[in-house]
Amino acid sequence: MVTVTDECVEFSFYRPGAASVHLAGDFNDWRQGELSMVRSDDGHWTARMKLPAGEFRFRYCADGEWFADYAAFGVEPGRFGLDSIVRVPSRPIAILHTAASTETTGIAAA
After folding, report:
1. Does 60 map to a domain?
2. 2, 78, 93, 97: which could join 101 in a potential S-S bond, CB 3.0 to 4.6 Å?
3. Residue 32: which of 55, 4, 62, 52 has the closest Cα?
C-alpha cells in the first residue's frame, strides 16, 4: 500500500515472515538492497521518502523475491514482471495575499 501526503510517500508491505524487505524503483535506478524497509510488530514493513512530483515504478524485494503492490496506483508490465505505480501530484503554490487583500490592509500593490 502506498500513501502520498504533502510531506512524504509512505510504502507499506505486509510480509510477517520476511527477514528483510527492500524497496526498489526507478527513483533509485532499481538498486536492490539500497532502500531498507523497517518491520513493525504486526508484520508490516514500511519506508518513507520524499519524491518530486511525477509517476514512479517500484517493487518490493522480500528475502530476494520480488513483489508488486496491487494496492498502489496501478500495476503495469515491466522488464521483469509487474511493476507498481505511485503518483506524486504537483504541490500548489501557496498564495500569501491577493490584490484584494492589499486593499483591505492598506498595503499598496507594486
Report:
1. yes
2. 97
3. 62
